[in-house]
Amino acid sequence: MLHASPYYSTRTQSLEMLRFRPLNSTFIRPFSSLHYSSLPITIPFVGSGSTSRGTATRFYPSVMASLSTVSTQNEVVSSHDESTQKISQPPLQVAKRLEKFKTTIFTQMSMLAIKHGAINLGQGFPNFDGPEFVKEAAIQAIKDGKNQYARGYGVPDLNLAVAARFEKDTGLVVDPEKEVTVTSGCTEAIAATMLGLINPGDEVILFAPFYDSYEATLSMAGAKIKCVTLRPPKFSVPLDELKSIISKNTRAILINTPHNPTGKMFTREELNVIASLCIENDVLVITDEVYDKLAFEMDHISMASLPGMYERTVTLNSLGKTFSLTGWKIGWAIAAPHLSWGVRQAHSFLTFATSTPMQYAAATALRAPESYYKELKKDYMAKKAILVEGLKAAGFVVYPSSGTYFIIVDHTPFGLENDVAFCEYLIKEVGVVAIPTSVFYLNPEDGKNLVRFTFCKDEGTLKSAVDRMKEKLTKK
Ligand code: GLN
């Protein structure tokens, strides 16, 4: 069963989005800055009044060119769709700090999955439901009247449960009242951390490929991004490169382990070197560990647990991946009080508080017996085996993934020029959606050979996708 959220599937939504189509949008980076694959095209727009007739020359890559009638706010309308070209609207407006960004790749690809009836191994959301006991807890909380604003930094019960879980995982004892901040998903925790702790002009180090919201929220905070690229096959941290980039001017380094999109897990050796560089240069660590319970090939290590690191580390996590409830958007940040203060200041004015009944249910979830976590891992290992074996059998070069529910492959055996072209071919000719990875790099060229598949789907879906690929993909 494909997940068909009404958000993506209604025609009304598509038309609604078209109303915000730019009239003159040369500044917008569509589908990332895929210079190597982009075609310059000219699209006439017909608007109302004397000033709104315009021509927008823009670059956009072939996947959106040939697949576009699913509309996103920064996508051009397909040339054969006359009716939509006649909608007159003022040009899109966006603050400079966000103008280079686009509709997220996950949204784009999920929309294309629905439009083309393709199996969605792109966006990382389970197509199966979260556990009954957690859903029951949410229903009960609603019935019990836990329906007004929550305390800004989290309902006491959830702060306690997060602290208890963190202690079990890392051995660190934290104060649930002063060191845990509950947010609307990890994405908000990321934003609150950036906005609460980073000043305009501060240097922040990212490892590419990186999750898209890191760059966007750093841009909102006005940070200067420095990038270190992790390269296949092992995506190891090039420690010498890191040493040459980190300095007293570095405010923070952002790590993500297990790592989206590669599945790489930071080794103890890598974390030790990063930690000593951070201590030496007085650098903060922001660590996104939302896939910590999906660690298959090695044990997850939290940066905060390394000697001398807790005081300079903000640890981010969430409920979504561990409990297959990505739509609940319950996340949290754990940090010493002096760092939690900044995170909380930003959080207070971003969302103030997050959904009250879901927080109560999240507390119940986090108290799940260890058997729940074991079972989750076992289920995911079976899914992973289906996808990995299938991708190999279909002819991909499959890179090792130690954690997360993602697999990175090299698509070049099939002869397509880059990741976007390959994903286009895969959707249209094979009926499977993957994520082109070039969007996760500052330099998109670095990701042009790689695409990401997810295995957070039921086994039947994974097998069908694999069958389609084995049957229809042909090596060039
Ligand atoms: N984390 C999910 C992924 O990597 C996407 C979440 C989103 O769409 N923002 O696929």
TrEMBL record:
<dbReference type="InterPro" id="IPR015424">
    <property type="entry name" value="PyrdxlP-dep_Trfase"/>
</dbReference>
<dbReference type="InterPro" id="IPR004839">
    <property type="entry name" value="Aminotransferase_I/II_large"/>
</dbReference>
<keyword id="KW-0808">Transferase</keyword>
<dbReference type="Pfam" id="PF00155">
    <property type="entry name" value="Aminotran_1_2"/>
</dbReference>
<feature type="domain" description="Aminotransferase class I/classII large">
    <location>
        <begin position="119"/>
        <end position="468"/>
    </location>
</feature>
<dbReference type="GO" id="GO:0008483">
    <property type="term" value="F:transaminase activity"/>
</dbReference>
<dbReference type="InterPro" id="IPR051326">
    <property type="entry name" value="Kynurenine-oxoglutarate_AT"/>
</dbReference>
<keyword id="KW-0663">Pyridoxal phosphate</keyword>
<dbReference type="InterPro" id="IPR015421">
    <property type="entry name" value="PyrdxlP-dep_Trfase_major"/>
</dbReference>
<dbReference type="InterPro" id="IPR015422">
    <property type="entry name" value="PyrdxlP-dep_Trfase_small"/>
</dbReference>
<protein>
    <recommendedName>
        <fullName>Aminotransferase class I/classII large domain-containing protein</fullName>
    </recommendedName>
</protein>
<keyword id="KW-0032">Aminotransferase</keyword>
